[in-house]
Amino acid sequence: MSDNYNRNCDDDQGNNQNNYNQGYDEGYNQNAAQDVGYAAGAVEGEYNRASATVSQEEQNISNDFRRDEQAVENAPENAWRATEQVAGEAVQGVEDIPSDIGKGFKDAANWLGDKFGGAERKAQDAEQDVDNFGQGVEDSYRQGEQEGEQEGGW
User: Fold this and answer.
1) What is the Cα–Cα distance from 135 to 122, expressed in whole angstroms?
2) What value, to the nearest 5°, has the Cα angle with vertex 149 and ends 146 and 152?
3) Tens digit of pLDDT for each residue in 40-56?
4) Which segments show compositional bias classed as Low complexity (predicted)?
5) Greatest CA separation found in the chain?
6) What is the C-alpha to C-alpha distance for residues 60 and 52, in angstroms, rounded to an integer?
7) Which partner for 148 in 44, 72, 109, 153 could form a disulfide, CB atoms 3.0-4.6 Å apart?
């Protein structure tokens, strides 16, 4: 019985296989192959783009690492240079104190001179105005006196 059973199963499988292949035409198989090829090409393209992106990022990381490594190597020299510059500026500031004080006194004296000089000029102008006024009064008096003598009034 088992021999017959196996023979019948083998026949059924063969028939089923034939029926399966007969249900599809050659055009469908060609279209499916093209679709699979297209999908494989798209996957390969994405893989290539991802690979290029990863390579670029690796290069960026490498550049960043080299830049940071150089900064660490230069740190002592940069710190020394900055300290030297600040110390030099501080020394110059201390050395400039006497001239800064002298300049301050000179500026204050100039300011006071301008203020007092302006006041002095105003006083001189006022004195001149008073003198001119007095001269004008004298001139007016003399003119009136002369007119009075000519008209026979005095």
Assistant:
1) 20
2) 150
3) 888 888 888 888 888 89
4) 14-31
5) 184
6) 12
7) 153
